[in-house]
């Protein structure tokens, strides 16, 4: 019945900062926003090498004239790419189980495409997969995307496909004409595909050698990440040649992890560690988040940040006040630091601590500070330095879940300007 709304509203209000206090409010006003969702790209490949070769030479260069968030976490669960999309469009958390795109695709939302439409933006998604995968056709329509260029919009042959479908280089190349034909300004989200498990790539598309470990998955990951890096580089060239570059900002984000815990042994070898601890596992959930604004220098930002923050950050860049929104993210160029990044399993990262699986770690050193695990049956474990924040994190996740399970936005009238 919506009785929970006042409390949730108050909580969401407290997180907000004044748009005027945002360092970059309005710098992308009236500009196109080109968002690249990079399949399975994790932060550990950035500025890293394999067999002596850079894994992502283009992204490494791009970071030098962009805003690069080096402590940015994905917050996805079983809905994988669709969960990351849900986070960035709504600044709400995906669900602890299942894919919210499927289970609550018909809810009332107040998503970015709907909001920016009021400010003259056209919105689209470009992704060379079947339109009903992850129930995207239903959800996109519901949250206000104007167009979805799905697999039917692309020329797909055996020669230009690998693994899950159309290769990223072909995908970007065939997409330029759609960008050119769209009304301006637009917000367009590209979802890449080649760097998807099991990381298949033909030999002629591989510029670097695989890694050599007992994990075929980790070994193959590096050449396919490099392939995506090259595809993005070619896309930037095409953007410049087509004249779209100057009037756009380009945002790049990894959607979720590509290498699961199953490959910890190989991963520890690659990272030159004795083992992958629960602390390391959390730190491996970082994905790149890069905001490239032509003409601006940018910098590396070390503050903690996450996918939940993308919507308020982008809205403010576009000069759109998100005052009437209900969300759980923060403008990453705003004055306040985040208190915590909540992962969907209840693990969290604060400025000082990393908490996961009942254990509290020092964020800087990875040192175990304490464990809440009970050693005697029936006797609760000890509190740790992380314990006070644990309930705040649970509260936030629970508010978000209540909105979705109760379809609470039905009862709320967002006063769009
Ligand atoms: C499929 C693509 C990959 O369309 O988004 O899906 P994933 O398995 O990463 O969620
Ligand atoms: Mn994905």
TrEMBL record:
Keyword Manganese assigned: yes
Chain sites annotated for binding Mn(2+): 39, 81, 255-256
GO CC list: plasma membrane
Positions that bind substrate: 196
Keywords in alphabetical order: Cell membrane, Manganese, Membrane, Metal-binding, Transmembrane, Transmembrane helix
Active site: residue positions: 81
Domain Sulfatase N-terminal: 31-320
MF-aspect GO terms: metal ion binding
Family to which the UniProt record says this protein belongs: Belongs to the LTA synthase family.
Protein's UniProt name: LTA synthase family protein
